[in-house]
Design goal:
Elements: E1 4-7, H1 11-19, E2 29-36, H2 54-60, E3 66-80, E4 87-95, E5 109-118, E6 133-139, E7 146-147, E8 154-162
Antiparallel strand pairs: 1-6, 2-3, 2-5, 3-4, 4-8, 5-6, 5-7
């Protein structure tokens, strides 16, 4: 099984903001989903592109063993393929912090998914996760899942093909 990426319905609001000249509409955060333990995650979430509250539910699930980090996008690079219309964007981030949004530790945890989001309040005095808009969610196949580094920061990349 390969990695899976799903474009979410809220991506239209992000695109509308960008096309209207609102630079604050750009994807500026990544959600890095993880699960306690180092065994590969085989029961990956089923993505409903219209489900806007998935991450809020994940944050509130105190009994579960899954959580996510909310990190800034550090860099975006573009790669042009065989034709000018064959574009790939690489969104890069560094997993900062040892505790997820829902309070679970990244120690001895495995990364199984990433999402790109726009957060109009990220880094401001009042940072409101409920205002975030998710552009795309992706999940790694079991072979591509990775543990958090315990000796350095973990770099993560979300690859988005625009063909």
């Amino acid at each position: 099984m390969s990695n899976q990426v799903t474009i979410c319905s809220s991506s239209n609001r992000i695109l509308a903001g960008l096309l209207s000249g609102d630079s604050s509409a750009r994807p500026n955060v990544m959600y890095v989903e993880f699960q306690s333990g180092t065994a590969p995650v085989t029961n990956l979430p089923v993505v409903d592109p219209t489900q806007d509250d998935y991450y809020l539910q994940l944050r509130e699930d105190v009994a579960g063993n899954r959580d996510f980090l909310r990190i800034p996008i550090a860099a975006v690079t573009t790669q042009v393929g065989a034709t000018p219309d064959d574009l790939t964007l690489f969104f890069n981030g560094i997993c900062a912090g040892t505790t997820g949004v829902g309070g679970k530790s990244t120690s001895d945890a495995i990364i199984y998914g990433i999402a790109l989001a726009n957060s109009p309040t990220f880094g401001l005095a009042i940072d409101d996760l409920t205002r975030d808009r998710v552009w795309a969610r992706g999940y790694f196949s079991a072979a591509n899942q990775m543990p958090f580094s315990q000796i350095a920061q973990t770099m993560i990349t979300f690859k988005l093909n625009l063909k």
